[in-house]
Each structure stands twice: as C-alpha cells, then as structure tokens.
Amino acid sequence: MRPAVIRSGLECLYAGGIHLLARPFFAGVGVILQFRHVRPMRWTDFQPNRHLEISPVVLDRIVRRLRRWNYDLVSLDEMQRRLVERDFSRRFAVFTFDDGYRDTLEWAFPVLEKQGVPLAIYVPTSFPDGLGRLWWLALEKVVAGNSSVGIVVDGDNRRFECATPSEKYELYAALYDWILHHKTEAEMLEKVTDLAVRHGVDLKGLCASTCLGWREIAELAADPLVTIGAHTVNHPFLSIAGETTVRSELAMGRTVLETALGVRPRHLAYPYGGRTQVGTREFDIARDLGFATAVTARQGVVKAADAERLTALPRLTVLGGFTARRHLRVLTSGVASVLWERFPRIDAT
Ligand SMILES: [Zn+2]
Questions:
Q1: CA 37 to centroid of ligand 1, rounded, Å
Q2: Which residues lie closer than 8 Å to 116 by C-beta, 6 or more apart?
Q3: What share of the chain is helix, strand, coil (3-state, %, to 5)?
Q4: Is residue 147 part of a domain?
C-alpha cells in the first residue's frame, strides 16, 4: 500500500467527518500503539525505512493528544486486567516498542519517563546477543553505500547501478521483493548475508549498533514504567516455520529473558505480525504456553470482544508521515481499521 494512498484515505475520512460518526461504534475499548524507531529526523537522500520512524517531538505530541482525548495510558498488565474484568469505563492506550532498539532507550524512553507513561519493549533475544540479522537495514546499508550492487540470480552474476537516490529507491524495492520471494527463511538469510559480506556491510556490527545490549535491557527492565515482553529468539517468519520451531521460538524467547532478567515475561509480540505472517496456529500455541497477552501487527483498535482472544490482539502502527492530529483522530476512531479489514493484504511493515 503506497503511503500516499493511505494518507489520502485518512484525509478523506477526516475531511468527511466520518471518524466523528464512527467513533462511538468502532473506537473500541482502547488502542495498542506499535512504534518502531523514535529518533530525530535524518537529512539524507535515501531513507527507504523512513516510514518506520518518528521523532521524539512527535512521540511527545502523541502522549499529550491521547491524554487530552481522555485515554488512560496504561501498562500491558493493566490492559489485560481491564480486558479480563471487563472494566471498560475509560479507554486505554498502551505504548509498545518492537525489537529493543537503542533509540527506544535513547529517544523514546526519556519522553515517556518524563510524562510518566508506561511502555512495553518486545525483545527478540538474539538481538542483544548480537546475532540478530536485521536484513531490511542491511539491505538499506548495501544500497546506500554502493554505486552498484551485484547479486547472483540462478547462478548468473548480475550487477545493478544505484548511483542516484531514485536508482537506490528502485533497487532497494526490487531487492526487498527478491529477498522475500525465497521459499525458506534460511535461503533468504543466506542471500542477505552473502549480499552484506560482498558489499562491506558487517551484520554483527549493524546488530550491535542498532540494538540494546543485555546490560541496558536490564536497566530498563528495573524501571517500574517498563515491561519487557517476549518476541522469540531469532525473529523468524512464524507462518512458514514448522510447528516445533514456532513452539520453541516462543518458549525459548521467554526463557532466555527470564534467565537474563530474573522476571518471567507474561506478554508476547509475534515477529512481523502481519496477516500473512501469523495466524490461528500461532495464537493457539501462545495461549497453550500461558502468555497473558500476545500482540500482532494487524491494524485495529482493541474491542471488548478481544477479551476472548488475548493472544491475537490488534495494534495500530504509528508510521512516520501519519502522525498529524487528524490522522491520529481517524486511526483511533477505528473507522480506518474497519476499512483495512476489507483489504486483508495490507500490512503496516
Ligand atoms: Zn520485531
């Protein structure tokens, strides 16, 4: 889904006042917001993952707006209590951050701490171990740092020019699709690793510079505002993994966090989490394993009926470029999610 299309959809809903009519019917009992990167704007010509980041100023504005709109900003435990006890007298909002990035500690946490806002950070344990393969960022670095990129397609060596920003965007999009079209994740990661090695990108270094280490995670975990949630070990595409792998990824991710932090995580986020990446099988396994809640990246507000499916909760992804007051107004009204439901292939990430 092109950002421009999403934006004009949101603008229409706002301009038409539809969100005002929709709010009482679709706004649900609360929202779980999903954030990726929070950091100051960078001024470079090529930023294919720009939509995954917002600035600290915007985060601060979101907190103030939600409070003005009478949302209670609560922890995952409190959200779960409200859902289980059917305590829906006031709407809630939960702030969640995926992957345990350094910028969550450096830029997002100070804003939320100052305002006393609880937050959850979902940590895939291979990331603080320095073994996470952040393939989408590696791809960005390969294209950004080279004026041409070579790949091997069906045994043929092929080279693509990417000297200008527009060539870079085009090549990034093509490589992204090419990577995702591999049948197994092992094959996919092998191709990314090969690409990175041949173009001077150090995957281990990228992981270490982007992700929090265990010491920093432990510091955050000790803060009463912070909940550390499980997010598997290796951040796999669960839907294409075998059942044994899914089960062990979910269970091991929790065990490793418990061993490292001394607290057993009660909450889970599925990696990627879109409609094609996670489904009923994963929701059932998470419930079997005893997770109190598990969140997806399926877009929507939380409804009273979600109390019956606590391991399949929807979120609203906060994307750069969609954080204006009117966009948030429409998103939290739930009407945009009603429309998105009609187009099941639209994932936010
Ligand atoms: Zn993730």
A1: 11
A2: 225
A3: 50, 15, 35
A4: yes
**pLDDT tens per residue across span 153-203:** 778 888 999 999 999 999 999 998 888 888 788 888 888 898 999 999 999
- In this structure, the answer to whether residues 221 and 320 fall within a common structural domain is yes
Distance 271 CA to ligand 1 centre (A): 4
* Residue 310: closest CA among 255, 277, 281, 267: 267
Q: Which domain holds residue 179?
A: 135-204
**Ligand 1: centre distance to CA 297 (Å):** 10
SS3 35: strand
Give pTM, 2 decimals.
0.87
How far is ligand 1, taken at its centre, from the CA of residue 34, in Å?
10
DSSP code at position 238: G
Domain boundary among 173, 188, 204: 204
- Among 156, 171, 204, which residue terminates a domain? 204
Q: Check whether residue 161 and residue 267 sit in a common domain.
A: no
Could you count the other beta carbons within 10 Å of the beta carbon of residue 57?
14
Q: In this structure, what token pair is assigned to residue 272? A: 């990627």
Count of the separate structural domains present in the chain: 2
Each residue's pLDDT tens digit, 278-335: 999 999 999 999 999 999 999 889 999 999 999 999 999 887 765 666 666 666 666 6
For residues 253 and 146, membership in a common domain is answered with no
pLDDT 10s digits, 1-25: 566 666 666 666 666 555 655 565 5
